[in-house]
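Components:
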Amino acid sequence: QVQLQESGPGLVKPSETLSLTCAVSGYSISSGYYWGWIRQPPGKGLEWIGSINHSGSTYFNPSLKSRVTISVDTSKNQFSLKLSSVTAADTAVYYCARGPVSAKGYPGYFDYWGQGTLVTVSS
Amino acid sequence: EIVMTQSPATLSVSPGERATLSCRASQSVSANLAWYQQKPGQSPRLLIYGSSTRATGIPARFSGSGSGTEFTLTISSLQSEDFAVYYCQQYNNWPYTFGQGTKLEIK
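Structure:
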């Protein structure tokens, strides 16, 4: 069974970099699929941050692209998110998720999700 | 950016009745539309992809339809565990976008 687990600091200071890792079990990242990050501010809706595949091809939300880095470590079967220059608006539950490759060869929907981790941006 | 608009924001339905949730895209997304269910304190759960294909393990009472800009999620006979927030997501154009959600509550 595919399982994803987010980890990282729950509190980040403004202007610093948010760093999260998603550990995958039950499936090898090297076998395919896209691996993505989605966030949800408290009491609000979902926002797609970006996705990466096993070879490192990445797709980002243009609204965040200048601040986002997503990387993959196939040897550890995990992938990571870095979001720089954070502000209070980046306070959210951050989810990692797996997504099948769409017919166009791009990321698509998400079929397995981690439980999410709350990251608060505050001094 | 494609804007996904869900209606209504809140839907009150009695157990055993049918619920119909709507999702409209600001431009065509073909059939590249997914539906998710989210319960309080939980991560979203994939229900439907490709507008109408149920994900693994999803009960047959959940069905999706539509293409282009108009989509519907129907729950044929509501069970107590179905009361939750439902989101649609388009994956036809960058950036992928979600609707704001419909809260399905017990009447």
